[in-house]
Amino acid sequence: MIPDRTLAFTAVAAGLIAAPGADFAAVARNAIADRRAGVCTGLGVATGSLVHTAAAVAGVAAVFVAHRSLFTALQVAGGVYLLYLGARSLLTFMRDRVDPAAEKTAARGPAAAFRQGFLVNVTNPKAPVLFLSLLPQFVPPDADPLTRSLVLSLIVVGCALLWFPAVALAVHSVGALLGGRPVRRTLALLTSLLLLGLGVRMLLFG
Q1: What is the C-alpha end-to-end distance of the chain, expressed in Å?
Q2: Is residue 79 within 8 Å of residue 194, measured between CB atoms?
Q3: Residue 107 and residue 34 in contact, taking contact as beta carbons nearer than 8 Å
Q4: How many CB atoms lie within 10 A of CB 177?
Q5: What would the pLDDT profile of 3-57 be if each residue is shown by its tens digit?
Q6: What PANTHER family does the database record attribute to this sequence (predicted)?
Q7: Euclidean distance between CA atoms 33 and 76, whole angstroms
Q8: What does the H/E/C string look like for the chain?
Q9: Contact at 8 Å (CB) between 127 and 16?
Q10: What pTM value is reported for the model?
């Protein structure tokens, strides 16, 4: 039987991963133009979550919490990267008004899409703090902390592996089902603006 703590952690982890944010926006943006690129972006996001949870288990995340300058540097890097993605997506959207073929050029190759998802997730400064504070709450006093934390980390990564590729498939299917290019353009604009907004928010408010 699965312990109650494990079930509770799974529910919390699934809720946090499913919450709309930079990861969701990056996956959706690539999925609009190309289904495979969206799935690969989702896999990159899941890999980034593996880095964060592994860092929390190893205690590396504690360093970022204790040293504000490192945390700030990661925050700036993450915000700038989101602004870059949002601006690039918006430029592609504008070019598509003149040249419809530009929509397909926005679809990234598998490796580039994977890298994009990974960087969006791994440069999120809130993730290490979140996992560092979350994991210990679900480690029973009589359990081995390292083993238990590793199990919880795998649950987080498993949820991400299920959720983000599913988001990519769903977004791509909705775009095709509801009218093709007009719907894809609307979704592309919304996700571009969302990336820009998240980048500004990260830089200004953390």
Answers
A1: 40
A2: no
A3: yes
A4: 9
A5: 677 888 888 888 888 888 889 989 988 888 788 999 999 999 999 998 888 887 7
A6: ARGININE EXPORTER PROTEIN ARGO (PTHR30086), ARGININE EXPORTER PROTEIN ARGO-RELATED (PTHR30086:SF20)
A7: 28
A8: CCCHHHHHHHHHHHHHHHCCCHHHHHHHHHHHHCHHHHHHHHHHHHHHHHHHHHHHHHCHHHHHHHCHHHHHHHHHHHHHHHHHHHHHHHHHHHHHHHCCCHHHHCCCCHHHHHHHHHHHHHCCCHHHHHHHHHHHHHCCCCCCHHHHHHHHHHHHHHHHHHHHHHHHHHHHHHHHHCCCHHHHHHHHHHHHHHHHHHHHHHHHHC
A9: no
A10: 0.77
Flag residues of the chain having pLDDT under 70: 1-3, 60-65, 68, 71, 96-108, 178-184, 206
